[in-house]
Design goal:
Blueprint (H helix, E strand, L loop, with lengths): L4 E5 L3 H13 L3 E5 L3 H10 L3 E6 L3 H13 L8 E5 L4 H14 L2 E2 L4 H5 L1 H8 L4
Parallel strand pairs: 1-2, 1-3, 3-4, 4-5
Helix pairs in contact: 2-3, 3-4
């Protein structure tokens, strides 16, 4: 059986790289994306099981991508997780709100995000 694919867009190494490592430990193939604009095309063509996106400098673009993913029949079912990057407090709060409204689950960055990953994935893939 082929390994499921997770797409990841992150701006900063922490927690981006530990997230990728943990997903690989959980037997996911991982493709890191360089820009938010790549997410929609990659999700449409590669059919990932999960998406992980950082809300940093490109938070507005990330939220726009999430809205497009949710409006497309081909990608609307894909669980999308976001975590706030290094933004000032008002910008971070706004980005988190916009991502939630767009349909993403918000994670708290840090060690707990990596530790809780198996449970978060299981919950997001529970279709019952």
């Amino acid at each position: 059986m082929a390994q499921p694919l997770a797409l990841v867009f992150y701006e900063r190494l922490l927690p981006g790289q530990p997230l990728i490592n943990r997903l690989r430990d959980l037997d996911y193939r991982v493709r890191a994306l360089d820009a938010p604009g790549e997410v929609l095309t990659a999700a449409s063509h590669e059919r990932p099981m999960l998406l992980f996106l950082e809300l940093g400098v490109h938070a507005a673009e990330v939220c726009a991508v999430i809205r497009k993913l949710r409006s497309s029949g081909d990608t609307a079912h894909i669980p999308v997780f976001v975590w706030p990057g290094h933004l000032d407090r008002p910008a971070r709060q706004q980005a988190v709100r916009e991502a939630q409204v767009a349909g993403a689950a918000v994670l708290s960055p840090g060690p707990q995000m990596i530790e809780q990953l198996p449970e978060l994935i299981a919950q997001s893939l529970d279709f019952s």
